[in-house]
């Protein structure tokens, strides 16, 4: 376990497929003394919410499914309402930070939920979304992270952090999240928005460039875990980093 002052480091490799899942397993938040032997038994409501979220996670992006096509078009329209999209495979997608002209190749690691997360962010926090997309805050690096690909990585990081593929949570952070989820079905999508904004804040604070992306992601995860374990946090909106979001 890392202490509060530590930031875990990993080998950095370029490309979204290589970024995904590399060295994101350490827990950097210290438990409170009262959490030494937590119980992770779930209520029926929490079990149902976890199962629904796991069902979402299990859905891979499939460019042949009309619902998936519509969601991708909806993302484009939310970001570029005045610009007509010429096709689901188009050089235009690079404007949003996809690696190539076919976003489906970047969804492999995050699945359909990573597209849903981006679309939720664009619709519910449009100012924060566009600030990140266009890199409008702070002194930016000459070698910036690609926005959309970073978004897929954030989805993957949160699934790992919250241990969402397990039958029941095995960490206090995961157990706390399921309480949030049982009270708000959009909790994962909201946390995604918080995490994206926090990641960019960490990026600026660390004066990072492209090759520092994994280091920044680890720092982001550590900060989120610490915030989850703060006293008197009963919902996501009470996390300190939630204040970074603007509508």
TrEMBL record:
<dbReference type="InterPro" id="IPR006816">
    <property type="entry name" value="ELMO_dom"/>
</dbReference>
<feature type="domain" description="ELMO">
    <location>
        <begin position="67"/>
        <end position="228"/>
    </location>
</feature>
<dbReference type="Pfam" id="PF04727">
    <property type="entry name" value="ELMO_CED12"/>
</dbReference>
<protein>
    <recommendedName>
        <fullName>ELMO domain-containing protein</fullName>
    </recommendedName>
</protein>
<dbReference type="InterPro" id="IPR050868">
    <property type="entry name" value="ELMO_domain-containing"/>
</dbReference>
């Amino acid at each position: 376990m890392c202490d509060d002052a530590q930031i875990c480091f990993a080998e950095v490799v370029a490309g979204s497929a290589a970024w995904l899942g590399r060295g994101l397993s350490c827990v950097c938040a210290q438990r409170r003394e009262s959490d030494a032997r937590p119980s992770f038994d779930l209520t029926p409501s929490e079990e149902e919410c976890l199962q629904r979220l796991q069902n979402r996670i299990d859905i891979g992006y499939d460019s042949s499914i009309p619902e998936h096509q519509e969601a991708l078009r909806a993302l484009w329209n939310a970001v570029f309402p005045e610009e007509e999209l010429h096709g689901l495979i188009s050089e235009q997608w690079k404007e949003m930070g996809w690696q190539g002209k076919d976003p489906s190749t970047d969804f492999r690691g995050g699945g359909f939920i990573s597209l849903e997360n981006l679309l939720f962010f664009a619709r519910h926090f449009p100012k924060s979304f566009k600030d990140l997309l266009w890199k409008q805050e702070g002194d930016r690096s000459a070698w910036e992270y690609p926005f959309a690909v970073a978004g897929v990585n954030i989805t993957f990081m949160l699934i790992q952090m919250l241990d969402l593929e397990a039958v029941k949570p095995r960490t206090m952070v995961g157990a706390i999240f399921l309480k949030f989820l049982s009270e708000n079905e959009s909790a994962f999508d909201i946390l995604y928005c918080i995490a994206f904004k926090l990641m960019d804040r960490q990026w600026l604070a660390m004066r990072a460039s492209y090759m520092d992306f994994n280091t920044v992601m680890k720092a982001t995860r550590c900060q989120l875990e610490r915030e989850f374990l703060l006293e008197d946090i009963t919902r996501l909106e009470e996390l300190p980093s939630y204040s970074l979001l603007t509508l």
